[in-house]
């Protein structure tokens, strides 16, 4: 069967589509402007902090003006410099609001430099940057990022700490004018008082005390104003999957869900979606730290993929987000790279078990077979059912157990995790549970009855399922995950399932080739690094756990724009998967609402061990 990849049946010309999807290469002007803005910001701060180099008629005139223009100009220069530093990153990302603020601040900083230090060079540099901004104003059209009021608290602490450090520099930058010899503690006290607009214990000769007081007051006012603005501005939260979007995605999955094992994970509630013009394909994504992160292949008809990808790239360009795709298949990677000009890199392999070929017989399955039989002799039994076949009381018990057995405060999972169990519309999901009756009433009774472990699978078309999460009671015998996977594979024919997708093993090919005879030194070093990182991320143990079931390995790829974006994409992916958390410290974190703790996290599946008989981590 031939597959057309040249459009979305909307009359688009293939070459034109590719040029649109490819988008412009990263512009040099915004990057140059952002760097120059950083330089001018430091220049303005230096102009306001350090004493004047020489006296002039302008300085003498400014000193006698009402309102002490000289100290006021110093404070204005410092404020403008700090704000320009804060805006530099936004200018590099083409942000329109950053451009508007910089256009206002640059002439203000130039005027302050001229009034306080008569610095013609500083004025010319600021005006030259202003002219550059005005000349290329069309390059700064990106829309704002998703935001929340929690940034106000971060701004208060970060800018407050910066103001405190800069204030110490301001207080100490006039040694010839200081009266007496104040200690560091007294200087720090003077800064703290000055940030709130009060006079501190340090005194200066002449009008320097005015300059220091105005400068410290400006820093304190700047911290307060920006914090209040961030706290009171309307929230623009990250997009969420609406009920209508979810229904449209379910319809696409009903027709084309058998193509990609990750398709059902597009229904996560914390993902947004863009549809092709015809509505026959969609790309789901989440924005993390300025990275527009999609996962898996586009949903829907392959012929309509280019239209959905075009919408995705247009959205990324409109907000100046970095586009990236995590875990797409080989076909998906080919379409993404062909239609957008992006690049692809193999990320790892997905373990897929063909159910009719699975058997516990044979030498290769001896370890799994022995472990399963040993656990069954210990009194454990398994049940594999559709979620829709469970009663509400039992389903609620499974939810609570999965949440409490998660083992970490941070919910993990994004690309291969659904993030929920048993919600309306998920009745086709499969739950495998392990049970063991209490031993004659000895010991404390579990709040989950005889439930000891849970596996949750999501549909993969009409004849497959993908592993979502694995949770077990820490007091249960080791090997619960192996027991339930075997039970699910043995029950699959009864459920009409012919293929089961297990865990995703990152860098599997490097681990497999690196341990073979004849592997080169570079490959051995790379494998050694992966084994070392497995102490925290358990890359090797997850690969070996998957290999027990003799799966077929399907490669998965990451799609990116340029190599220099990879560190940023990797960091964003780790945030999305829950390995890196940039939230508030525990005392300030908002408590989870009752009933909203989502026992998701495909990546929590790494809590396994390869060696038989070794307890799960």
Automatic annotation (TrEMBL):
By its UniProt entry, which Pfam families does this protein fall under?
A: LPG_synthase_C (PF09924), tRNA-synt_2_TM (PF16995)
Domain Lysyl-tRNA synthetase N-terminal transmembrane region intervals: 27-228
Annotated ranges, domain Phosphatidylglycerol lysyltransferase C-terminal: 250-559
UniProt superkingdom? Bacteria
Q: Per the UniProt record, which residue ranges are transmembrane?
A: 29-50, 70-91, 121-138, 150-171, 212-232
- The residue stretches assigned to a coiled coil in this entry are none
Q: Name one GO molecular function term.
A: aminoacyltransferase activity
> How does this protein sit in the membrane?
Multi-pass membrane protein
Can you say what this protein is called?
DUF2156 domain-containing protein
Give the species this sequence originates from.
Answer: Streptomyces agglomeratus
């Amino acid at each position: 069967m031939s597959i057309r990849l040249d459009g979305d049946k909307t009359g688009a010309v293939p070459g034109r589509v590719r040029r649109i999807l490819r988008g412009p290469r990263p512009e040099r002007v915004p990057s140059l402007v952002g760097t120059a803005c950083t330089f001018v910001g430091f220049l303005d701060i230096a102009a306001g902090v350090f004493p004047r180099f020489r006296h002039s008629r302008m300085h003498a005139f400014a000193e006698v003006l009402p309102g002490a223009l000289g100290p006021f100009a110093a404070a204005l220069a410092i404020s403008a410099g700090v704000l320009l530093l804060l805006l530099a990153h936004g200018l590099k990302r083409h942000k329109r609001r950053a451009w508007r603020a910089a256009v206002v601040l640059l002439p203000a900083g130039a005027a302050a430099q001229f009034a306080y230090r008569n610095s013609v060079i500083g004025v010319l540099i600021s005006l030259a940057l202003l002219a550059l901004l005005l000349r290329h104003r069309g390059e700064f059209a990106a829309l704002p990022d998703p935001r929340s009021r929690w940034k106000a608290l971060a701004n208060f602490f970060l800018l407050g700490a910066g103001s405190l450090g800069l204030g110490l520099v301001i207080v100490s930058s006039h040694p010839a004018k200081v009266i007496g010899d104040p200690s560091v503690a007294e200087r720090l006290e003077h800064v703290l008082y000055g940030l709130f607009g009060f006079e501190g214990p340090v005194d200066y000769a002449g009008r320097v005390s005015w300059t220091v007081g105005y400068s410290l007051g400006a820093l304190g006012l700047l911290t307060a104003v920006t914090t209040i603005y961030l706290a009171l501005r309307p929230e623009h939260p990250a997009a969420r999957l609406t009920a209508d979007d979810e229904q449209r995605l379910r319809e696409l999955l009903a027709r084309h869900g058998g193509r990609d094992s990750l398709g059902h994970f597009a229904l996560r509630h914390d993902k947004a979606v863009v549809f092709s013009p015809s509505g026959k394909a969609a790309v789901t994504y989440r924005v993390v730290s300025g990275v527009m992160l999609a996962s898996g292949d586009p949903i829907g008809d392959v012929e309509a993929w280019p239209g959905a990808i075009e919408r995705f790239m247009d959205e990324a360009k409109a907000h100046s987000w970095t586009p990236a795709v995590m875990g797409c298949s080989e076909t998906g990677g080919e379409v993404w790279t062909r239609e957008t000009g992006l690049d692809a890199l193999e990320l790892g392999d997905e373990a897929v078990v063909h159910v009719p070929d699975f058997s516990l017989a044979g030498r290769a399955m001896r370890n799994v077979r022995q472990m399963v039989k040993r656990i069954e002799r210990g009194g454990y039994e398994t049940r594999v059912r559709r979620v829709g076949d469970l009663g509400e009381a039992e389903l609620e018990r499974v939810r609570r157990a999965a949440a409490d057995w998660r083992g970490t405060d941070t919910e993990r999972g994004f690309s291969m995790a659904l993030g929920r169990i048993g919600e309306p519309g998920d009745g086709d999901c499969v739950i495998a549970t392990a049970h063991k009756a209490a031993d004659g009433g000895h010991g404390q009774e579990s709040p989950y009855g005889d439930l000891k472990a849970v596996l949750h699978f999501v549909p993969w078309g009409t004849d497959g399922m993908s592993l979502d999460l694995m949770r077990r009671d820490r007091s249960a015998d080791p090997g619960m995950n192996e027991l339930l996977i075997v039970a699910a594979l043995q029950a699959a024919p009864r459920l009409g399932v012919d293929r089961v997708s297990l865990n995703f093993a990152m860098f599997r090919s490097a681990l497999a080739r690196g341990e073979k005879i004849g592997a080169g030194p570079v490959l051995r070093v790379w494998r050694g690094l992966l084994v070392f990182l497995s102490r925290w991320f358990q890359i090797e143990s997850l690969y070996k756990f998957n290999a027990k079931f003799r799966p077929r390995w399907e490669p998965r790829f990451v799609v990116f724009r340029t190599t220099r974006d990879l560190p940023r994409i990797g960091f964003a992916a780790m945030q999305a998967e829950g390995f890196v958390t940039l939230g508030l410290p525990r005392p300030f974190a908002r408590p989870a609402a009752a009933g909203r703790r989502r026992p998701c996290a495909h990546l929590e599946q790494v809590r396994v061990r390869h060696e038989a008989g070794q307890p799960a981590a």
